[in-house]
Amino acid sequence: MSADRSSSLPLAxxxxxxxxxxxxxxxxxxxxxxxxxxxxxxxxQHYSPHDxxxxxxxxxxxxxxxxxxxALAPGADFGDWGLDLAESTAPRRLIDAAVDTFGRLDILIxxxxxxxxxxxxxxxxxxxxxxxxxxxxxxxxxxxxxxxxQFAPDSFGPIDESATGRVIWMTSGQHEGPMPGEVAYxxxxxxxxxxxxxxxxxxxxxxxxxxxxxxxPVNTGYLDDEPTDRSAEVKKGALRSMPFGRxxxxxxxxxxxxxxxxxxxxxxxxxxxxxDGGFSLS
Length: 282
Description:
With 282 residues, this protein is α/β, with parallel strands linked by helices. Helices cover 36% and strands 12% of the residues. The protein has one domain (15-152, 159-281): Rossmann fold (3-Layer(aba) Sandwich), CATH 3.40.50.
């Protein structure tokens, strides 16, 4: 990361992989477009079959691709791959594909998640727990490992802060309060928040900065009136807890993430950051 990078395109020349980019209203697309607008070349992973099982359904992937391409700054490039990250070999294959496309990766944003098919503690089965763990936690850890393997260990003095890699994980606010009916999902996301300091300390030996973001209630479709997987009463209660009178937009966490992976965010490492418009304070 060059210290003299243009302020208008602070990510120019950098390359990023963003996972979970399969819907035009999703956080993944919001992050991808923000990085592209700031100059990064962006490779995205998507898996539409997961969305097809949700109440709001799958989106048109060609439209998602077009939305990222339209945000690219001059000279930046784009790539994508539809891949199920529940497969044990998928994380390595995805990192390899992105590196093959761009020559290297500077930024990894693990935005993907399995949701739905969950339940209370009394509904838990080995299969439901493993299904959420394999996508939300295991694949994130393995993606991070394979991303970090590009960077040689640095044992010769202080880290060059202008040349650090960046990793962003996504958690879901389960540390802020209960998430009844989402035990498998909350467990897998809590694992990421809990292990953030440990993995961040290990990644520092390779000059990589890891932070985890809780985006709070962002309306990616599940907070619409219809279709939904939550009752109208639950959504109205959540909206009343939003100090600004609205749910988050994908662009809200995208701004924080873009800052974290830029030169401006180089002093942040090993943190679990909440970007929820004050929801957790209500």
